[in-house]
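Supplementary Methods, section 5.1.

A reviewer requested that the exact input to the structure prediction be made available. We therefore reproduce it here, unchanged from the version used in the analyses.
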Amino acid sequence: MAELTNEELSRLLETERRSLIGFLTLLTGDPHAADDLFQDVCLEGWRARATFEPGTDFGAWIRAVARIQVMRHWRRLKRHRLVSLNPELLEQLSQAWDEESQEARPREQALAECVRSLEAHQIQILTWRYTESWPHERIARQTGRSLDAVRMLLFRLRKALESCMETKLREKHDGSAPA
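The structure derived from this sequence is encoded token-by-token as follows.
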């Protein structure tokens, strides 16, 4: 079994970052604790990377690592008499997340494929808006476009991505090749 390189692990963790923080927030009920636990999960994932089997679902593997970190978190809180968590509830929440995650994965893959088909400047504008949360006004200043032009561009990009995703999902569902 080949061990993940640091670069591969970093790339996989970055791909799962948002999902994993959401998962940790669900299990802890505390976004700040989830951020802290994410760091612990990354460290533990790095330590345990030899146990990951390439070709299997990295998201499921890292969530298993995360569940262990959450249990440790709850044990620390319980020791300080702050709170306790029923392990069965933790398992039920984890299973529900896994099921939801499996349903979302084809949409995420379709979106990634569609984004890759865009031009670099379009991807940059989407990144500023949706990853870095830039307001429309800042994008307009940065690109030298009017505010209305930025809003229209983002609208058109969303519509194009939506249409592309529908096509890709339909192709996958029907098993048909692209036309």
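The chain has two domains: 1-104, 117-179. These observations are discussed further in the main text.
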